[in-house]
Amino acid sequence: MTDAAIQEQAEIPDEMAGWRLDRALATLLPIYSRERLKSLISAGQVESGGLLVRDPATKVRPGTAYAITVPPPAPAHNVAQDIPLTIVHEDAHLLVVDKPAGMVVHPAAGNFDGTMVNALLHHCAGRLSGIGGVARPGIVHRIDKDTSGLLVVAKTDRAHEGLAAQFADHSIDRRYAAFVAGLPIAGSGTVDAPLARSSVNRKKVAIVREGQGKRAVTHWTLKEPLKKAAFIECRLETGRTHQVRVHMASIGHPLLGDPVYGRARPEHKEVLKRLEFERQALHAARLGFIHPITGGALTFESPIPSDMQRLFINLKL
After folding, report:
1. What CA–CA distance (Å, rounded) separates 207 from 246?
2. Nearest Cα to 171, choosing from 287, 78, 57?
3. pTM (two decimals)
């Protein structure tokens, strides 16, 4: 992306007669979100016949031509850092990253650098059209620092808007591989329990009464029994913070290695210590969604990382 403003042109076709200007331009210029175009109109960056048009609700007429000036995206306030990333897919609109355990997704208190955002700003230098006018990657969902696996990131406003809509309507296919303590009696099950920040410890999430938190649904399936443990797959119907960790702990099967929602049982302590396994045994193994620009169905899979593979071998019956 250069430092020069981009000049876009759009002419209203017959079928858009009477549409709002922001809606028509968003359809004619799909790289930009409707919200981005609305802000450009209000900022005096759109003109027709030499006159500025500042009302996004202006009703358009067929044949009317509009000139749109898109300023270069403002630089992100985070620092770009040359940190290696495993990119499993990338195009002009989005990319899918296989995040290692230990990496924070977004800068926050205590983690201002060394994050995935810092790495993406370096990787995508000059290729971010800007989210809301800022040259930054669009983080539509996150996974915990000590959870590994797949994450989709938007590079454009329109992709960010489309992906966010899919996460909001729970149409994303998200599946996690996990090792839990104890062997479930059933081969599968569903935990449907609302979640909210704990009133006792704000760093934790807790199951709350209906109406006091956000609905959270986890479908789990037993993949293989292990030594007083189990290898399971969790399919998320919703995607709440710490959802898998809290839900599995609530039914008596906390994730192995989870320092917050589980306590290592005597039969697992030796194995975890010997392997120096110090994180929750959770991996975002599958991610499927509809490409927000092309409309094509995309599915990605990531094998469980080496530390979880070693744990699996040591826990096999």
Report:
1. 8
2. 287
3. 0.81
